[in-house]
Design goal:
The protein is α+β, with helices and mostly antiparallel strands. Helices cover about 30% and strands about 30% of the residues.
Length: about 425
């Protein structure tokens, strides 16, 4: 599936067809080193100057070796010059040997691009419980070329994929203090996707200069409202992380919460994360439809998000969408076990523009019209009004298809 991007302006930023290396001073690439049979499986990203770094990691208690090594680097230096990524093997649940392999990847890549080891992050994705073929990875890293002419962001996007069916990217530009700033990102993710970080890797770059604490706080807040609001199958992986690098080469004054243009930057940053999250949800293994659930009328934002995530994660709801069945009883059922207290008489539900529940009572609607909406559209929107307050939350997911079972029944073969 090819992603098409039209240049579109918003109040604060302009969406573009750029990529992970569009911000000034960033370079990326990928190659096949032999972990997979044919496809690119080793990717790299680096900045011409050390970049302020921030990251959010999986909540799975078994955090893979690459996450531990990346944490070490960011804690020690606060900055990253590069990230080395492999796909096809997660280097997870591999004990001390896996940790040694992750540190070797860091060491080799740092030497290849001429930076200190503690300025390199490591990421891996793929099968859990198998050791990395480190000799192949070392040979691959030695083939990496530096410099603008050697930057191939398209290959980086391909090298990080596993069961994904398309590459995921987003880019935007904005003006800050008379300087043009670019924010971009790419990601991988298709299965084992669930709120609180899932089998997904996301990389964001910007040439903005950003205060360290502000960048970390912005990333955490943004992840909570984007990547943590998607689900495909309820499984949370051992390897997931989102990393952002801000190298300051745009030449703007340092951004912080006190900066007059902070809101502009934060909105463009959120746009990148939101677009990547939605693309991951759309590419759920075997999925045919992107599903968006918008909950309004909640007493708190947390409750709105909980209700939205529960509905989007319901296998019964997902299966009904695949079958183009407007079975709103499954939606009501999911809301009922979401943990959110709801007054039944205040609850309303719409599927697309079709009202199916109105103030706690079944609405009069055309089953044929609802079936046609679910069958003919590749993006399905559900609107749920809890009728209790003014807070809202949105979650994204996909339908549940026969192909999901086929893909995951034969993942290692």
């Amino acid at each position: 599936m090819n992603q098409l991007y039209e240049k579109e302006s918003t109040a604060f930023f302009t969406k573009t067809d750029g990529n992970i290396s569009s911000p000034a001073g960033f370079f990326a690439g990928g190659l096949h080193c032999g972990i997979k049979r044919k496809r690119p499986d080793l990717g790299w990203l680096y900045s011409a100057v050390p970049a302020q770094a921030a990251a959010v990691y999986t909540t799975n208690q078994f955090q893979a070796a690459p996450i531990q090594v990346t944490k070490e680097s960011i804690v020690e230096s606060g900055k990253l010059s590069g990230i080395i990524v492999n796909s096809g093997n997660a280097n997870s649940f591999t004990g001390s040997e896996g940790l040694r392999h992750a540190r070797l990847m860091r060491k080799w890549f740092a030497a290849q691009i001429g930076v200190n080891e503690n300025q390199v992050g490591v990421a891996s994705t793929g099968v859990i419980g198998e050791f990395l073929p480190v000799e192949k990875i070392e040979t691959g890293i030695r083939r990496i070329d530096k410099g603008e002419g050697a930057s191939h962001p398209d290959l980086f996007e391909k090298a990080i994929l596993t069961t994904d069916t398309f590459q995921k990217r987003a880019c935007a530009t904005l003006e800050i203090g008379g300087k043009t700033v670019t924010v971009a990102g790419c990601a991988k993710g298709s299965g084992m996707i669930h709120p609180n970080m899932a089998t997904m890797l996301a990389f964001m770059t910007t040439d903005a200069k950003v205060e360290a604490a502000a960048l970390q706080n912005l990333l955490k807040q943004t992840v909570d409202e984007t990547f943590n609001m998607i689900t495909v199958d309820g499984d949370t992986s051992t390897n997931d992380m989102v990393i952002v690098m801000a190298n300051g080469l745009a030449g703007n004054d340092t951004l912080s919460y006190a900066h007059p243009d902070w809101k502009k930057f934060a909105e463009s940053f959120a746009y990148i994360a939101r677009e990547l999250a939605k693309q991951i949800a759309r590419d759920g293994e075997g999925a045919t439809k992107l599903v968006e659930v918008c909950v309004t009328g909640a007493e708190t934002k947390k409750e709105a998000q909980a209700a939205a995530k529960t509905v989007i994660g319901s296998n019964l709801v997902k299966a009904a969408i695949f079958g183009a069945d407007a079975n709103w009883g499954r939606i009501i059922n999911a809301i009922g076990y979401s943990g959110v207290q709801v007054d039944e008489k205040a609850l309303s539900v719409r599927i697309g523009g079709i009202s199916v529940v109105e103030k706690g009572m079944p609405a009069s609607y055309s089953e044929d019209e609802a079936h046609a909406y679910l069958k003919e559209n590749d993006k399905i929107c559900m609107a749920i009004d809890l009728g209790a307050g003014t807070c809202q939350g949105t979650a994204w997911g996909c339908d549940l298809t026969y192909d999901y079972v086929k893909i995951n029944a034969t993942y290692r073969s």
